[in-house]
């Protein structure tokens, strides 16, 4: 009887809480780990913008902290573990290479919720989230294909993982939809953020005939190089037009704020469950930055038409027929690639030049 009386008093005082949820009097501590400097454009900047949006929306219900420029590997594991040990109820780990460290730490801290960006491993207390980058890439490819005179685009890429390959292939297919002769040349930097390597790769691609550059790396170096070399650029992650006002045709931009707000509120409410979120144009998680006025009106209209078709589900960037680099049919006519196969992509479409590193 005394035990029941204690429980009733504790409940009345708000002392009993759902595991992983914040009490009314205590803000939920939310941590963010970034792989590169925040800066004012790029991958990490977009995640930081999402964190700020979430913090503004939830106010005193949350207490947030970020750590930037955390290398993938042992250092990431240390930082993730420290967040959990310091009582953070929710931790967002925002780079592909944080996947295994996140899973490892999550096993030791089952009461902490984790969300990992771009990964595929989940657990009871680990969710995953990503953006359908390839949708925006296809649209940007339409712009690039229409504006290229050499029929060659240069692509500066970080690592040959499915997320990056989807972008290369979708961009190439978008180019070819308006310019069948278009091809893409790729240089790998083996780093998410290395402005020096990115700049060097961009310079080499221009010497190889590329008159439109794009990138799947974190800095503004490729856009700056394009502006200086007098070629066009399609930026990634953020609108980078201020870094190359003459070169910048558009950018594939990503938006995380709504997801961060929704997910954090679910942890506060005690309703969060591990899941995989993969949102695209329809979900408002990917969009194109304003298109440069030098792009003809009919090209802009084509982009808007395909954008609406993607949003409504009437069009998919990887609907057949799609051939691989060697000419074999990868996606048959009338077929659309599955999400499962997209997430395992390890091949180039026809029109991408060079050998895919393993």
Describe the structure.
With 358 residues, the chain is α/β, with parallel strands linked by helices. It has two domains: 23-131 and 256-279, 3-Layer(aba) Sandwich (Rossmann fold), CATH 3.40.50; 133-246 and 286-353, Rossmann fold (3-Layer(aba) Sandwich). It has eleven helices and 15 strands. It has helices spanning 2-12, 43-58, 74-85, 99-108, 133-147, 162-178, 195-207, 221-229, 257-269, 297-312, 339-342; strands at 28-33, 62-67, 90-93, 113-117, 126-131, 152-157, 183-188, 212-216, 232-237, 248-254, 276-279, 286-288, 322-323, 329-331, 352-353. It has a seven-stranded mixed beta sheet, with helices on both faces. The longest helix has 17 residues, at 162-178. The chain is globular. The protein starts with a helix and ends in a 5-residue tail after the last strand. The model is unreliable at 1-23 (pLDDT under 50).
Q: Indicate the CATH class of the largest domain.
A: Alpha Beta
Radius of gyration: 22 Å
Characterize the main sheet.
7 strands, mixed
Order of helices and strands: HEHEHEHEEHEHEHEHEEHEEHEEHE
First and last CA, distance: 67 Å
What CATH calls the topology of the largest domain is Rossmann fold
Which homologous superfamily in CATH is the superfamily of the largest domain? Response regulator
**In terms of per-residue confidence, which ranges show pLDDT below 50 for 5 or more consecutive residues?**
1-23
Briefly, what is this?
By secondary structure, the chain is α/β, with parallel strands linked by helices. It has helices at 2-12, 43-58, 74-85, 99-108, 133-147, 162-178, 195-207, 221-229, 257-269, 297-312, 339-342; strands at 28-33, 62-67, 90-93, 113-117, 126-131, 152-157, 183-188, 212-216, 232-237, 248-254, 276-279, 286-288, 322-323, 329-331, 352-353.
């Amino acid at each position: 009887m005394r035990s029941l009386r204690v429980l009733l008093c504790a409940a009345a005082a708000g002392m009993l809480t759902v595991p992983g949820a914040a009490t009314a009097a205590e803000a939920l501590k939310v941590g963010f780990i970034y792989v590169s400097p925040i800066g004012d454009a790029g991958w990490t900047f977009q995640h930081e913008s999402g964190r700020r949006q979430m913090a503004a929306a939830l106010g005193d219900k949350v207490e947030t902290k970020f750590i930037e420029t955390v290398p993938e590997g042992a250092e990431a594991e240390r930082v993730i573990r420290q967040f959990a040990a310091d009582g953070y109820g929710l931790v967002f780990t925002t780079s592909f290479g944080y996947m295994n460290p996140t899973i490892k730490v999550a096993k030791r801290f089952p009461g902490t919720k984790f969300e990992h960006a771009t990964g595929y491993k989940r657990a009871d207390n680990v969710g995953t989230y990503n953006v359908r980058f390839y949708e925006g890439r296809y649209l940007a490819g339409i712009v690039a294909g229409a504006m290229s005179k050499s029929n060659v685009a240069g692509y500066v890429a970080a690592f040959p993982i499915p997320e990056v390959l989807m972008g290369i292939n979708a961009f190439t297919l978008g180019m070819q939809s308006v310019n069948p002769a278009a091809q893409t040349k790729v240089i790998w930097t083996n780093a998410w953020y290395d402005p020096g390597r990115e700049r060097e790769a961009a310079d080499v691609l221009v010497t190889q005939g590329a008159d439109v550059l794009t990138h799947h790396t974190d800095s503004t170096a490729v856009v700056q190089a394009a502006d200086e070399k007098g070629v066009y650029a399609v930026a990634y992650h953020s609108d980078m037009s201020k870094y190359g006002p003459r070169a910048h045709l558009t950018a594939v931009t990503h938006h995380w704020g709504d997801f961060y707000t929704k997910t954090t509120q679910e942890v506060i409410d005690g309703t969060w469950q591990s899941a995989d979120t993969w949102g695209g144009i329809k979900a408002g998680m990917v969009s194109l930055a304003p298109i440069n006025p030098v792009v003809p009106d009919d090209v802009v209209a084509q982009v808007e038409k395909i954008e609406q078709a993607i949003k409504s589900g009437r069009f998919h960037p990887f609907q057949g027929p799609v051939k691989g680099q060697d000419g074999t049919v990868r996606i048959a006519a009338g077929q659309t690639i599955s999400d499962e196969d997209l997430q395992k992509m390890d091949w180039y479409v026809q029109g991408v030049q060079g050998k895919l590193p393993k």
